[in-house]
Amino acid sequence: MAAPAATVRTDPGGIMMENGYRTLITHSLDPDLSIWEIEVGSAGLDGGEPIDTTTQHNDVYRTRSPRALISYEPFDVKFAYEAGVQKSQLETLINKKRSGINASVITETLPDGSTLAYYGFFQKVSFDPKVEGELPTGTLTVVPTNFDPVNRVEAGPTLVEVEGT
User: Between vectors from CA 116 to CA 115 and to CA 117, what angle results, nearest 5°?
Assistant: First the structure.
């Protein structure tokens, strides 16, 4: 049996983002959505549960193997809003994956100006109680689909980095 060899950690390349400000979310079907982002999540990555490969021939350890596919996971955006946004804009975007020949693309604009664009949709919106002396807020759940509904093909995100990152 071969023993695993250690790997020495090296310094990362690129430039670390030092501040979460200013991160924005844009929906291609309504780029001027009347929300003001407060806290913006980002699509996490999930490889799924490991495959149990343990058999009656194992002697000491249970063994596992990774799955083949990955998911970009849903995330939340906390926002302030304009009074009519629920009916006038958000209701028309919930569960919309396309409009005519235009696919629903979500763009995350990152603090350094880089953009991450992917096919997706707004799944749900909830509004927090309105309290005197507090900013009215809501939470929007964004779901990346990794699927181009117009061309009907699998399509992962596109990252466009600004120069120097």
Answer: 110
Q: What is the pTM of this model?
A: 0.90
Q: How many residues are there in the chain?
A: 165
CATH topology of domain 24-45+67-160: Elongation Factor Tu (Ef-tu); domain 3 (2.40.30)
- Picking from 85, 108, 102, 151, the residue whose alpha carbon sits closest to that of residue 17 is 108
In the chain, where are the structural domains located?
Answer: 24-45+67-160
Tens digits of residue pLDDT in 47-67: 999 999 999 999 999 999 999
